[in-house]
Amino acid sequence: MGIPKHRITICTSCRHKGETCRPGYELIERLRAAIEAARDTVSEDFEISGVACMAGCDHPCTVAYHGTRKATYLFGDIEPGQDIEDLVDFARQYALLHDGWCSSVDRPGKLRKNTLARVPAMMMALEETERLVS
């Protein structure tokens, strides 16, 4: 297996207000299992890992999708026991998007309304800047 083209990063320090539980660890395990189970329908490899903080503290648990030369998405208010199917469906979709760009109405289920950010790929931003300058 080569280097994955896509990465899903999950915040491991997020916790619901007034709670001590950090749902990111559970979400990582559940999503890894679900992606593995869906391997025949997910067209690309995804590396799934945790990070200490993604500054989405008001929207636990936060999940980011990254890809080479693709827009990055940050989703919030993700529940490990409820949103796995939407996350796997978005992995299928994201793998097929050449630049990672999609409209909110095209995103599956809860991810339509729980998008905290869509960050353009660096290459896209540089190309646009170069076009404007020339």
From TrEMBL:
Segment forming the signal sequence: none
CDD domains documented for this protein: TRX_Fd_family
Protein name: DUF1636 domain-containing protein
Species annotation: Halocynthiibacter styelae
